[in-house]
Specification:
Elements lengths: L91 E4 L5 E4 L7 H4 L4 E4 L3 E11 L19 E7 L8 E5 L12 E3 L12 H10 L3 E10 L3 E8 L5 E10 L2 E10 L21 E9 L2 E9 L3 E10 L2 E12 L4
Antiparallel strand pairs: 1-2, 1-6, 2-5, 3-4, 3-6, 4-5, 7-8, 8-9, 9-10, 10-11, 12-13, 13-14, 14-15
Length: 336
């Protein structure tokens, strides 16, 4: 929803301590997400719970000199509806063990009236669920401070009842008012296999990305297909002295849009973007909440998993880049 270390305009930094209160409001330790300025000239969050070291293929690199131009952009179909990002509310929750409830822990007791209009939960790759505010839960002394499904019975917060299909256990959902969030604005999300092969060194898209950034690529994977003609990619570039860089890249009909995450190695090469990330990013660290059409392009809701927690955030497409919305969410899930 970062012991970290950087001063290169990170919007989320590592927290040195946890505040375990009855409201369970945590600063997500270990997150060091970067909020970079995306310019058209550039064309643009420790691994997840089961992350492994990249395969030998991850050591392939591409030289910008061998890059080929991207294909010419073609007009995309007019979307059926548009989402207004300004109408999103910063209300997130996570699913219970059976998926019958979603727990919201960031709202204070007494906020129930303001939450009643939230009748839809969206997450887990665009899954749309009907929900209804059920009750405030006070919590108890057995709360272990971990915002996980197995700890929900012990936590304080608002419980939303899931009506119809079940939510996915432990997945993060954003809660919305269906009156201001048109479901027709959502794109179909087709998650790629995180254990699948990365883009080959000779792949034209990989070459186009290297050319656009003027930098060799260390590793590149597809994270998800978004509708019939768009893809979201995770690309880490080869280290240049102490300068590190990875990007989230949207490809649509040959057009590339970048969200860059630069980092500078200082005293700890094992924690670069997030604590204990080993100085690399891999697909297991990222998942898609949803993707939706807006008047300016796409809005992407993303999860970034780390060794101690998960961050959820939104990227709004603007020209050849993305800006990050002020809305974000973090959960502390470090193993006991």
């Amino acid at each position: 929803m970062n012991q970290a270390k950087h001063s290169f305009r990170h919007r989320v930094r590592a927290a040195g301590s946890l505040i375990l209160t009855a409201a369970i409001v945590f600063s997500l330790t270990g997150c060091a997400r970067t909020n970079s300025n995306d310019a058209a000239s550039s064309a643009a969050a420790s691994a997840g719970p089961s992350a492994a070291s990249p395969s030998p293929a991850a050591q392939q690199t591409d030289s910008p000199a061998s890059a080929v131009p991207a294909a010419s952009a073609t007009a995309s179909p007019v979307p059926a509806a548009l989402l207004d990002p300004a109408k999103l509310q910063p209300v997130f929750g996570f699913a219970s063990e059976t998926g019958s409830h979603i727990m919201v822990t960031r709202e204070e007791e007494g906020s129930g009236e303001q939450l009643k209009s939230l009748n839809t939960a969206i997450g887990n790759g665009g899954q749309v669920l009907a929900v209804k505010l059920e009750k405030w839960q006070p919590g108890n002394d057995n709360n272990n401070g971990r915002e996980l499904a197995n700890n929900i019975p012990n936590m304080s917060g608002y419980l939303f009842k899931v009506e119809g299909d079940a939510a996915m256990r432990d997945e993060t959902y954003v809660l919305v008012d269906s009156a201001v969030f048109p479901q027709a604005a959502l794109l179909e999300v087709q998650p790629a296999d995180p254990a699948g092969p990365q883009l080959a060194a000779g792949d034209p898209l990989r070459k186009s990305i290297a050319a656009a950034k003027g930098r060799k690529i260390q590793s590149a994977w597809k994270l998800a297909g978004l509708g019939p003609d768009r893809g979201l990619y995770l690309v880490q570039f080869v280290r240049q002295d102490k300068e590190m860089l990875f990007s989230l890249v949207l490809e649509e009909d040959g057009k590339l849009s970048f969200k860059d995450y630069p980092a500078e190695i200082t005293d700890n090469e094992y924690s670069v973007w997030r604590v204990d990330d080993g100085g690399e990013v891999i697909p297991q660290m990222f998942s898609v909440l949803f993707a939706a059409h807006t008047a300016d392009g796409l809005l992407l809701g993303l999860n970034w998993w780390g060794a101690e927690g998960v961050n959820s955030f939104f990227l709004k497409q603007e020209g050849n880049g993305f800006t990050e919305l002020a809305i974000e969410y973090g959960r502390y899930i470090s193993p006991l």
